[in-house]
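Format notes (please read before filing issues)

Several people have asked whether sequences and structure tokens are stored in separate files. They are not. Every record keeps both together, in the order shown below: the sequence lines, then the token lines. Line labels are part of the format and must not be stripped during preprocessing.
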Amino acid sequence: MDDRVQTITELSHAFGTVKYVRAGGGNTSCKTADVLWVKPSGTTLMGLQPETFVQMDRARLGRLYSAQPPEEAAAREELVKNMMADAVLPATAGRRASVEAALHDSLAATYVVHTHPAWVNGLTCAMNGAFFAKGFFPDALWLPYIDPGYTLCMAVRKAIVTYRAEHGGKEPQVIFLENHGIFVAADTADEIRAIYQGIEETLGAAYTAAGIDYQTVAVAPLTADVSAIDGWKAIIAEGLGADGAAVVCSGRFDTAAGPISPDHMVYAKSYAYEGILTAENLKAITAARGYAPRVIVLPEAVLGVGKNEKAAALALELAMDGALVKQTARAFGGIRYMSDRARLFIENWEVEAYRAKQQA
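Then the structure lines:
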């Protein structure tokens, strides 16, 4: 096994904590001139081992960049998925590479670490995020929100070419993606760690100056007794059936009012249900939106809901992370929610459905 794979495994574990990602979020890679090792789709960074990375032939993967995919989103993403599968080397045949593998391949640096920290997304999901990013990180590349997958890959490749032309052939080490997260690229593990540390120190100082806690969300104590919680669970089971088989409870916190990022949508859905808790209301909102709510906000509690305990816990975890993004975004003009068009793409994207299924 190449020493670089051991290094990226160690970086994956270092950046696989809840400080940087939630659930199956984020991805990492390393590369030689010929081979890209990248995280499999739907796995966690903490769970990666050297042998679990997907090995990809970079020459075959490169065919994707000159392809002429269909305009229709589903057909385009299906073609891209098949072309990426064709680039997987026999040693890891059958594994599905992260959808952002081509983006990793577009950077020349040996190591790439992509995460979604709430303290970064307070900037990337803020109304004035681009303005502040330019002031704080003048050498970073900022991209407005772009649908993940092929469209994002090609947009980033184009932006990198432009960046190199404007910076004497040098590529960006930091890429901020609006309503998404951050990519950090470097040729050594120490550089990756140092860049992340510098970004946290800069943003942490900005949050502190604004009087904002960027590490924790205020959660009110859960005062409901067992009988009340059992009552909620019975109503949810009646209203949602198998989709409400498990319920995880928290005290009340300031939940987001809409979709923040693809990760939040995958595990907690675009919108929480906030209304009178009746089986009829839950059935009605499920019919109206086309999916069962994963987060339910009550006057005295916030509930994560799912088909099993893990899915319910993930929904609550991502709802709390979204609340932290909302809290930190106040330092930069308040939160920017995703558009309906962007939301619908994610809600109907097979890749994200696959990722959610792998985690659940």
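For reference, the curators noted about this record: DSSP finds 14 helices and eleven strands in the chain. The first strand starts at residue 27 and ends at 31.
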